[in-house]
Amino acid sequence: MVDTFLNIEPVDLEYLAFAGINKNSLKGETAVVTGSASNVGLGYARVLAWAGAEVVLADLNDKNGAEAERVINEENGADVALFVKCDVTQESDMKNLAAKAFEKFGKVDLLLNNAMNMRLNGPVLGSPVSDLEQSFAISAKGVMYAIKEFVPGMRERKHGVVTYSATQFHFMPPMVGGAIYTAGKAAATSLIMSLANELGPAKDSGIGVFCLTPAGVVRFDLSKMPPMPPRPEGAPKFDFASFGMPGFNGMITPEVGGAAMLYCILNAKQLHGSGIILNDALVAMDYPFPNKATAPKPSEFRRLTDMELTMTFCIMGPGFAN
Fold first, then answer.
1. Residue 321: predicted pLDDT
2. Going by C-beta distance under 8 Å and a sequence separation of 6 or more, which residues neighbour residue 273?
3. Which CATH architecture has domain 14-314?
4. Cβ-based neighbour number of residue 35 at 10 Å
5. pLDDT attached to residue 73
6. Cα–Cα distance measured from residue 289 to residue 263, given in angstroms and rounded to the nearest whole number
7. Is residue 130 very low, low, confident or very high in pLDDT (cuts 50, 70, 90)?
8. Residue environment code for 7-33, b if the CB has 16+ CB neighbours within 10 A, otherwise e
9. Which residues of 79-112 are buried (b: 16+ CB within 10 A; e: fewer)?
10. pLDDT at position 7, please?
11. From CA 267, how far away is CA 201, in angstroms rounded?
12. So where are the chain's domains?
């Protein structure tokens, strides 16, 4: 454990060199990571810095953000990380973030949209409309502001990656996130997928756009976990404290989530216009799972056509039963 109140593990991914992950993987790249002062966002930022990228940390939490900057610079060298306090729902804050990033590093190559408030987690009938407005403001509007500030430069240079930490698009036990949380995330996911289509093939634009779903199993502070929405009658009890990720002995660390994100970034052109769940990303990179007995196997799946992808949110269930 690293000596800091952030409760993080050391980053050491040299054993993943076979997957193309090493300390020079992102040398010369600059990343902006929103919601990066804790949990999986911090895991993303620390792994990208380990892989050679300069990292701009955007978060509302001053204390955590300053400590995250200190830790990353201590791990990787002075001036690798820059923390900028940023409320992604405010256009002025996003413009300030962009100005500080460009002033410090000159460009931004990687945009990781991760910010969200998990306390916006209530059911449809039990939540005020203001919660929904805030969920959309953080996820959808915040992503839109970030795209406006950073993607034009990527497009001009024909080089970049844009990604989003997605989740399920509607509440489904026992997944993390109630109706209000998932509504905002679904809106942002739609924006990201539409952006991929607007930019066109990554081989032409030079920009890879995709979503990665951490799958709700990256370890976080359970004391800060918001109350789950009421469970449907007869639904099985779900205990996050005892939940384990397949292939691991319990919940995984944010740094493992960061390794999966790094692998996806390195293969962003292949993922362009699609999304992937963390489990499948780890399988794709042939991750050496510590618990071989429960390790997931390669999924039997096919990539959806563009038309199928646009209709995915419409197909919410099996339709008429036989």
1. 57
2. 193, 196, 197, 209, 210, 306, 309
3. 3-Layer(aba) Sandwich (3.40)
4. 27
5. 98
6. 16
7. very high
8. ebeebebeebeebebbeebbeebbbbb
9. ebbbbbbbbbbeeebbebbbebbbeebebbbbbb
10. 86
11. 14
12. 14-314
Number of CB atoms found within 10 A of residue 235's CB: 10
**Angle, alpha carbons 126-219-215 (nearest 5°):** 65
Q: Which two tokens stand for residue 55?
A: 């990292």
Q: Which residues of 243-275 are buried (b: 16+ CB within 10 A; e: fewer)?
A: eebbbbeebbbbbbbbbbbbbbbbbbbebbbeb
CA distance 272 to 254: 23
What's the whole-number average pLDDT of the chain?
89
Question: What type of residue is 281?
Answer: A
Residue type, 91: E
Distance CA 94, CA 143 (A): 10
Tell me the two tokens of residue 89.
Answer: 């729902």
- From CA 146, how far away is CA 155, in angstroms rounded? 14
Residue 95, token pair as written in the block: 């413009």
pTM over 0.85: yes
Give per-residue pLDDT as tens, 6-48: 989 899 999 999 999 999 999 999 999 999 999 999 999 999 9
Pair 158, 206: CB distance under 8 Å: yes
Q: 9 or 159: which carries more pLDDT confidence?
A: 159
Residue 217 token pair: 């199993």
